[in-house]
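Tutorial, part two.
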Amino acid sequence: MKNIASITFCLFSMLFVVSCSEDDSNDNGFSSAELVGTWDLVEVNVSDGVDLDGDGSSSSNLMDEESCISGSIVLRDDSTYQFEVSNFTLTAITNGLYYAQCSGSTQATGAWASNGTEVVFQGSTVLGTLQLSNNRIVQTVGDDLPGILSYVYELR
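Running the prediction step on this input gives:
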């Protein structure tokens, strides 16, 4: 009788542990664990193709045209982040030509949280809420040239 009680107790304990275990999968998007790491800036998109480097080829991604543009977001598993992006200005010259000038960088730190489809950054007004889409973090600005449409980050 004592063995049956012990076995029953063990079975219920195991059932309780299994049924209450944390489910890391997120059917609605990314789990927080999947987001941890360094996200590199891979696109700075504008509304129309430009040829900043004068090679005769236009691109709507300024990173294809200007080597001084860079950035990253480091998401840590303790829900803190570190952000850095190069500062640049895009100036219209004439006849659809533009000039980019880089100067220093912007940095921010704080806390982050995600619901699987968005990442919310606290501690700085630079980032705000960014969208998760196709293994990318996207910051949509929505401005036409000489403004920026979006910044896109990919996990390294």
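The first helix runs from residue 2 to 19. In part three we will examine how such features are distributed along the chain.
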